[in-house]
Predict the structure.
Amino acid sequence: MGKLKTPIWESVKISLTSLRANKLRSILTLVGVIIGVTSIITMVSLISGFNKLVADQLATLGSTTFIVEKFGIILSDDDWFDAMKRKDLTLADYQAVVAGCTECEEVALQKVSNRKVKYGREHFSRVPIVGITPNYMKVVALDDIVDKGQGRVITEFENDHRRQVVILGPELTDKFFPMLDPIGKKVRIGDADFTVVGVPKKRGSFLGDNQDRFAAIPFSVYQKYFSNKLEPWEGLQFYIKARDYPSMEKAQDQVRAILRARRHVPYHAKDDFGMYTAETLMDLFKQVTTGISFTLVGIVSISLLVGGIVIMNIMLVSVTERTREVGVRKALGARRRSILLQFLIESVTLAVVGGTIGIFLGVLLAKVISWTTPIPAAIEPWSIIAGLLVSTGVGVFFGVFPAAKAARLDPIEALRYE
């Protein structure tokens, strides 16, 4: 074992010495591997960051909540055109679900439209105004979000008596009340004044949607001021929470049966409404990111292939330059496998040095992107191990041929080589 360690370490030292002695050639040799491993680390970090962000955001829905709406998940133009032909969900549909779904713990409503929000001379245009029933807070865990911010949630009393109160997004309160307590202040939404009763904690953006820019008001008040008279229930969404996880499937079946019966959907026809869970959205997102990952792996592989070919070329040059050295070693009794191992270790050392630099640059690049943009990044330890294994594999694969060529040299011919 001791005899084996010595030639391995000597081969590593020879490679590192060669790298230091020919810095420009070394950089050009390793650039392909560096780019490939940097791309792997950056890609994995950004995709992992996105997956974590989406999982955290969807966690507010919980594992027992599902959403029913007119459109649902649209994956193609045909889906879109089919969804456009559907009837809108109505308040009567909502009431039927509330009355008929025995496995549902809460059935909440949401409807959204954009309006101008103003305080003094400051204003925001096209702010999403969200009309919600008070139990909506429990279904999407908004009560927890508000509790960690300021103020409180909207109450049943305020909804029943059409009190003009609002939970205002942090982006609006930061601009309207930079040095003031927003609770109790009045803001103007459209043509009506609303009293601020709550401000959630900041949540940032999610898939391009700014979650800190909104105004949530009682659903009854939304009906009074903002419902479109021509299409009053377009965009109505049901947020439904099952009693517990085992009841989830039964609750979905009950809601589906109630809506299909009310909307006279034939037995063999598809639902004329959309229904999905947080798990459905997460699975869909993972399918998209997995597809992107495979595409990027193909692109990265080209870089690694080029890097490996360059390493093989440099190792062939090295074998030619050191032909007499190989001849001397063989004349002194060195075996073929010792020569092969020496050049193979040198090739792997080259690739691992490139991989290590790539890992460092990949982590740095992912951090810089995360710090300077809204794109999240999560450094996965397994991606660093994968980067090292990939670079090692490149060194082994592309180092075998030059090492075998050196091992096959005839000692007499090698000693004559000039």
Q: What stands out?
A: Residues 229-233 have pLDDT under 50 and may be disordered.
